[in-house]
Amino acid sequence: MSIIIKPIVSEKMTVVAEKYNRYGFMVTREATKPEIKREIESIYNVKVVRVNTLIQRGKRTARNTKAGVILGQKNNFKKAYVFVDKEDTIDFYSNI
Fold first, then answer.
1. Which domains does the chain have, with CATH numbers?
2. H or E element, residue 17
């Protein structure tokens, strides 16, 4: 089973990737920094300099329905920010 769930592809992460050569990934909660580093290096053939991780709390949600307001919460998930060497880049769109 893979540690990496999916890359984070948004406008903000695209700007950061182009400017600072950092990439974001959603990873499993049990993943450690060395495991994430090995996985990224093997999948994308790049040299990872550093990995930062954080656990993102799920947002609270509310819906208005005929029966009233339904409250809920989205799931928590873990993010990993990967710092790649200056000469390397990751192209997420190459497999499309």
1. 4-84 (3.30.70.330)
2. helix 11-20
